[in-house]
Amino acid sequence: MVVEIITPNKEIFSGNASLIQFPGIDGSFTILENHAPLVAALKKGQVKVISENETLYFEINGGLVEVFKNKVQVLAE
Fold first, then answer.
1. Rounded distance, CA 14 to CA 19, Å?
2. What CATH number does the domain containing 64 carry?
3. 8-28 pLDDT per residue, tens
4. Residues 6+ apart with CB under 8 A from 45
């Protein structure tokens, strides 16, 4: 799936991933390929992205995530 993580200042990640894990306001959750459409609020914490050959971690201070048709867009603070 295609993942974009964007902050007010810059895009911090854009690429393909097989798994992405978020710090949701109601608890941690994971998005995999072909996930149902979703919009969720995020709290301060780590976003974990597993791409083809590596695992990446990004610190965020909150934000929103939208999942639609194998595209994950994160608007992070």
1. 14
2. 2.60.15.10
3. 999 999 999 999 999 999 999
4. 22, 23, 28, 59, 60
